[in-house]
Design brief:
The strands form 4 sheets. A 3-stranded parallel beta sheet has the order 1-4-7, with no helix packed on it. A 3-stranded parallel beta sheet has the order 2-5-8, with no helix packed on it. The chain has helices spanning 8-12, 72-81, 86-91, and strands at 19-22, 25-27, 30-32, 36-39, 42-44, 47-50, 56-58, 61-62, 67-70, 98-99, 105-106. 18% of the residues lie in helices and 30% in strands. A hairpin with a 5-residue loop joins β10 and β11. The longest helix is centred in the C-terminal third of the chain and has 10 residues, at 72-81. The relative contact order is 0.12. It is an alpha/beta fold. The protein has 3 helices and 11 strands, in the order αβββββββββααββ.
Length: 114
């Protein structure tokens, strides 16, 4: 399937205008990933913030001490992905939608709700 800027779906697919970052090592840095393509980079003890899906990580290493922060919009995608994964409800409810008594789910753009 081909997307272009004249189609409805093309308008939500990011253009290939990401800024390339190659082979850098980040140590104890706070970074916003949006708008960048990281290739062969390393992240140690960092704080990574993601507000959109407009970023790429290619052949990168993220250590266990690096923290990732997600915007409410990105959290909605994560919650939808995890909506049928009971383990997420049990172990990481922040990344799961609200499961209603009638079996439906609720996903909103609020970080304090689902």
């Amino acid at each position: 399937m081909e997307f272009n800027n004249n189609s409805v779906l093309g308008s939500i697919v990011p253009n290939d205008d990401l800024i390339n970052v190659n082979g850098l090592w980040y140590n104890q840095k706070s970074l916003h990933l949006d708008g960048y393509r990281f290739v062969g980079c390393r992240f140690d003890f960092c704080n990574l913030t993601i507000s959109t899906t407009r970023f790429e990580l290619i052949d990168c290493y993220i250590d266990g001490a690096t923290l990732t922060y997600y915007s409410d919009e990105v959290l909605k995608v994560i919650k939808l992905f995890n909506s049928r994964n009971q383990t997420m409800y049990d172990r990481a409810p922040f990344f799961a939608p609200i499961k209603n008594n009638d079996g439906t789910i609720t996903i909103t753009g609020k970080s304090n709700g689902a």
